[in-house]
Amino acid sequence: MRLIILLIALLGGFVLVGMLVAPSIPGLRDWYIANACPYLDQFSSDICAAVRRAAAGHDI
For site-directed labelling of 58, which of 23, 28, 40, 46 has its Cα 20 to 30 A away? Predict the structure, then answer.
């Protein structure tokens, strides 16, 4: 049970970093777009929307 809770917390943290932190850090933003967003888009395209806006030069 603890392992399942830990995995859910890690996944949630990964998604939150992608939504809140990655748009403001160019290296992390590029990594998220290249590696994480293809998988996260399967759940919701809104998760990577801020990262893509920041990469396009728009305001977050």
Answer: 40
Average pLDDT over residues 11-30: 91
Asked if 29 contacts 55 with a C-beta cutoff of 8 angstroms, the reply is yes
Q: Tokens representing 21?
A: 């932190």
Q: Which two tokens stand for residue 3?
A: 């392992």
Task: Please give the Cα distance from 60 to 46 (Å, whole number).
Answer: 13
Which two tokens mark 44? Answer: 């919701």
Tokens 């920041």 -> residue: 54
- Sign of torsion over alpha carbons 53, 58, 23, 28: positive
Instruction: Determine the Cα–Cα distance for residues 24 and 13; give it in Å rounded to an integer.
Output: 17
* Residue 46 DSSP class: T
Report the alpha-carbon distance of residue 20 to residue 44 in Å, rounded: 15
